[in-house]
Amino acid sequence: MRMNIKIIIPGIVLLTAFSLMGADWPVWRGEKRDGTTTETVKVEALTGSQLWETEVGCGYSAVSVYKGRLLTAGNKNNMDIIYCLDAASGREIWKHSYPCAAASTYPGTRATPVTDGINVYMLSREGDIICLDLNSGGIKWEHRKLANGEVKNLPWGLAGSVLLHDGMAIVNIGGRGMAFSASDGTPVWRSDGTANYASPVLFSFKGKEYLAMFSVRKLLILEPRTGNEITSYPWETKYDVNAADPVIADGGKILISSPSDHGSALLDFDGSSLKKVWENQNLCSLLTTPILIDGIIYGVTGTGGAARGNFCAVKLSDGSLCWKSNIQFGSFIQAGDLFVYLEDNGTIDLIKPSAAKCEVQKTVKYLKLGSAKCWTMPVVAEGKIYCRNANGRLVCIAAQ
């Protein structure tokens, strides 16, 4: 079945040629895995119109973009569908589907497909791990329904995206994660128990590599090649929700942030143990991972729905509040010298990072996006902005 793609403007050939010159966004939270890109957004380019739009099925998957190809996922009729689209036109290149219950609350996909430039990797809400050929969409390997038995699923479904590192595909399944050979799916290490919603985060400290990963009620620091636990820090939250990824700062500092019953804490890692530096409720991240710039943590505190959240900024050093804005609950990334912030009502704000105040440069509301929750991280890649809502409407907007 052909996808219903509406092309808003002509000139696709020129757009395709331009896209190959821009920065890619191949994995969850971008090439540096920190929510930032060297791509820039021109304020005057944000006009309220879009280049193209399409429907990809319900869910909260973001997009990955690599050399003119866009990857995302959604659910239709209890089937997860991984899409590979032409990033400039929205034209379908291939798609792959497999059975996966959409669920009755917050239905659809959670994780984001990622690529190493050869293969595509995806984790479903039920624990299916699949590796597809980037060019053809053909199956390379898969493991079905790992979230059962001793490896338990989560109330709202597994949500962490695959982390690619050192020839491994690492996922947050089980009490301390699992790793598989990225090339053929052979298990490298695994664990039993219950995970949490955040993605694994790789970081280096004093020349060694580590994994920061949330299990159901604690933050774990693991050895990447073996999955062995080095240390942990207890972090119990209401409903056991730790969905925002840990944020790594210089000097072994790790920021963790969760919903309002807990808030945020800055931890100090010395290579073998974790110690709390500070903890408060100035930033309570339900879903969106904060972004660190020049000693300031920018994040979304609070929730969506009737109890609106807000965009805010706190000092990394002591957790003190710099400011809290009236910008509603949503998600954001940094592109060049601006934040691209998508509110849950379909409004896009371009914001200049500042410790002094929330400096909004432009605000445009996209009504079609606002027809459903917009909780998914926007992405800027190859000269374009990509946004989606929970019903699966995906739009492409000019960034330059």
Write the layout of secondary structure elements.
Layout: E1 6-7, H1 12-19, E2 36-37, E3 52-55, E4 64-66, E5 69-76, E6 79-86, E7 92-99, E8 114-115, E9 119-123, E10 129-133, E11 139-143, E12 151-152, E13 163-165, E14 168-171, E15 178-181, E16 187-189, E17 193-194, E18 201-205, E19 208-214, E20 218-222, E21 229-234, E22 247-249, E23 253-257, E24 264-269, E25 274-280, E26 291-293, E27 296-301, E28 310-315, E29 321-324, E30 330-335, E31 338-343, E32 347-352, E33 359-365, E34 379-381, E35 384-388, E36 393-398
Parallel strand pairs: 2-30, 12-17
Antiparallel strand pairs: 1-3, 3-36, 4-5, 5-6, 6-7, 8-9, 9-10, 10-11, 13-14, 14-15, 15-16, 18-19, 19-20, 20-21, 22-23, 23-24, 24-25, 26-27, 27-28, 28-29, 30-31, 31-32, 32-33, 34-35, 35-36
Structural features, described:
By secondary structure, the chain is mainly beta. Helices cover 2% and strands 43% of the residues. It contains one helix and 36 strands. The protein has one helix at residues 12-19; strands at residues 6-7, 36-37, 52-55, 64-66, 69-76, 79-86, 92-99, 114-115, 119-123, 129-133, 139-143, 151-152, 163-165, 168-171, 178-181, 187-189, 193-194, 201-205, 208-214, 218-222, 229-234, 247-249, 253-257, 264-269, 274-280, 291-293, 296-301, 310-315, 321-324, 330-335, 338-343, 347-352, 359-365, 379-381, 384-388, 393-398. Strands 1-3-36-35-34 form a five-stranded antiparallel sheet, with no helix packed on it. The protein is globular and about 50 Å long.
